[in-house]
Amino acid sequence: MKSRSLVDEQKKLQVSEQEVTHISADEAAPTPSAEDSEQGAARRSFLKLTGAALAAPLLLSSSGSGAKSRRRKDDDEDDKNDGAPAPQLSSPPTIPWQIDLPVVVDQLQPVTLDPPPMEAANTAAGEAGRAPHQRWNELYVSARQYPPIHYQLSAKENPAWVFNPAYPPQRIWGYEGNVPGATTPGPTIFAYYGQPTIVRMHNRLPQDHVGFGTPEISTHLHNMHSASESDGYPGDYYSANKAGPTLASPGEFKDHCYTNIYAGYDEQQNGIGDPREALGTLFYHDHTLDFTAPNVVRGLMGFYLLFDHIDSGDEHDPSPSALRLPSYPYDYPLDFSDRVFNQNGIMFWDQVNPEGVLGDKVIVNGYIEPVLRVAARKYRLRLLNGGPSRFYEFYLVKPNNVVQTFTYIGNDGNLLPAPLFNQYRVRLAVTERADIVVDFARYPIGTELYLVNRLEQFETRRPKDVKAPGSRVLKIIVDRYPPEQDVSQVPSALRELRPFDQEEIDDAKVRRWDFDRRNGMWAVNGKFFDPAVSNAKIKQGAVEVWELVNVDDGWSHPIHIHFEEGRILSKTREGKEVPVPPHEQGRKDVFVLEEDSTIRVLIRFRDFLGKYPMHCHNLIHEDHAMMVRWDIEKDDSGSS
Fold this sequence. Notes:
The protein is mainly beta and 640 residues long. The chain is 8% helix and 35% strand. It has 3 domains: 185 residues, Sandwich (Immunoglobulin-like); 150 residues, Immunoglobulin-like (Sandwich); 132 residues, Cupredoxins -  blue copper proteins (Immunoglobulin-like, Sandwich), CATH 2.60.40.420.
């Protein structure tokens, strides 16, 4: 099936009574075929052409696929070279502090799956045509520390979500678990190392939907060390009647197998992997090719928390290895995501503008300016910047704006080697995470606190200055004493890091990845993303140094590498080495690449094979092709 013309696609743009519909999903996502173009599937053609037409052309060198944008000196030069920044909408006023967040998060409960999960895709029962689960007998069927556990989620539409009392009920997309009704975030999954998890993900989105987005899904568990077929690769999108270019057939559901092994399973030869590689704060979100941003903006995300014998999720754990950090219900994930609403109070998104949309309202776990009521004791707050474009610098303040301190224990999905005590700010790029511990026992009952964002940002390109007092996004009220004594703690040591091996670093293959603009669009090494083309073939077990480079294109790019985490070796800005801040000295999966900078990252490629992406997690950049595929292949030589 050939691509439709730009004129044909433009005719499909339509407006509902309250929502803007940019592209009909069936028109924007034709069935993949062998006739798809060399530089991307047919489904992308309209977005590329329209985005290029909307954006002023960049002044590029003519040296071929590696062309770089001119160096920019200031914002005026930005505007001259790249066109003025897209005008941003202004949302109507909201009414603050009217909606209470749940006192405890919605924890997804296990189910018995019918039909039971299988190694190969159960297409006869309606499963999408994924590749067979890798190492199925070894990591799922065979006895582990704990028997497998199964969950079920459905991506569905909720037609009457209320973000704030000032805005009308409206359609969102979210995840439904054990309780009827889709929510955003979806239910939180609590998982454990040594216990394989199957998450059956149903696609029950309306195929004749109204509004932006596309009703296909591909669910990515961000930061998980999982096999390729369960990674949520962008080309693995599906619905009951449509399959992405890297799936064999459509389906109503898809089984994701998360083996919950530590990275380094093969290397350690101990049946569990390397506990120094443990993950903790993960989240699942849609990753559909070309439509990640609108599908996530509509609400397709949720948390997945992963525990082990060290970070056990039990503050009463008697084991000497357990950290006894604050635990459920005092372990509370919080998603912060920027959104913008039209004059009628209806959420807005512009899919075709390659500069994206910067939200001026921050939704916190699905609501604008909500209230979190806490007990007078320690809490572990897991902060996530869910995007799509805004960066944050959070401060905890009293009503008179006096800044309060907390303890910083984790960055991205990982505990730090040691806590950072007496911290007062957390900066988060898109999809970065920070785990902090706040002791609310310091405050009398009735105390009101606010989490504020002091990082100014006026366009999607990059944040500007930190300015007090900032915008209040969450109100916290200490309203009760806990029913029992708080026995949680923050010990002086958290999780050990694997030491650097300089000889290993010196011997590692070096790959350079340039993130830049190309013809008004986003590119990696001068190329747009093609889900069928691998830009790097890596031997299983290899150790490499990846150089992430931004040749001062005027933007900040939060670069996310799937599957394996990395360690920052060095950072340079304007040609000069700069120190790596303490909270970035552990393992990371998102690397904030500022203008005119390079980050060198050490990465290992272990345990599984197959295709994975790396991309900018400014979601509009990802949808407009700033993504690259790399593959792990079996090493038949007997050495890495």
